[in-house]
Design goal:
Blueprint (H helix, E strand, L loop, with lengths): L20 E5 L6 H8 L11 E2 L2 E2 L5 H11 E5 L10 H11 L5 H11 L15 H14 L4 E5 L7 H18 L2 E5 L3 H4 L4 E6 L2 E4 L1
Parallel strand pairs: 1-6, 1-7, 4-5, 5-6
Antiparallel strand pairs: 2-3, 7-8
Helix pairs in contact: 3-4, 3-5, 4-5, 5-6
């Protein structure tokens, strides 16, 4: 017998302006990460539309969505998502090389310096602290010059002091580049640093 359909997000309607910084908050299980997945085109909604950079995401096939993400979107994850067999420099330069950037290594070096890790570019993730790994992830995200950056609990795996340093760096780089930022967080202090807070509860929008 088929189970009862599970509605994770229900009747969500919102617009995020270019250059805006937006926090997505809510209790565990409220649909924050699902919303992020839909906005990035990583998940497909059962109904409704998502528009990104003037393009209806789900009018594109999977390859088209991937190309749009590669061109316009950066990601920072709670668990860093660095490739363990690559150095810091290689982790940052790889997406640029995949995009056929001739300056991939030079650009990766520039961004590692921007996050204070010029001296650590030949270190592997296991040789870096959690804060250093997340700074490599920030360098990787901004190196692609995204128009939109999705950050999913970027300080969630860090202690309070290191998390605050990473948050300061995230907002500093974001201001410098003018990137649109969508930040999923349970940290109210972090959310208050954004231009606007979107609150979810049980899959519904309760504040926007």
């Amino acid at each position: 017998m088929a189970g009862t359909p599970l509605t994770i997000l229900d009747d969500i309607g919102l617009a995020i302006n270019a250059g805006e910084t937006v926090a997505v908050t809510g209790p565990s299980g409220s649909g924050k990460s699902t919303l992020l997945g839909l906005l990035a085109g990583l998940d497909r909604p059962s109904s409704g539309e998502v528009w990104l950079d003037g393009q209806s995401l789900f009018a594109l096939d999977e390859e088209g969505r991937a190309a749009l993400r590669a061109r316009a979107v950066g990601f920072v994850f709670q668990n860093f998502q660095l490739l363990p067999g690559l150095t810091a420099l290689e982790n940052v330069s790889l997406p640029l090389e995949l995009a056929s950037r001739a300056d991939a290594v030079a650009e990766a070096r520039h961004w590692l310096a921007a996050v204070g890790l010029a001296a650590r570019e030949q270190h592997f993730p296991t040789q870096l602290s959690g804060g250093e790994q997340q700074r490599v992830a920030l360098a990787r995200a901004f190196a692609g010059q995204p128009r939109l950056l999705f950050a999913d609990e970027p300080t969630g795996n860090l202690d309070a002091r290191t998390g605050a340093q990473v948050a300061d760096l995230l907002f500093e780089l974001n201001r410098a580049t003018g990137t649109t930022l969508v930040l999923v967080t349970h940290d109210s202090a972090l959310a208050r640093r954004c231009d606007r807070v979107i609150a979810l509860d049980a899959g519904r929008l309760v504040a926007a």
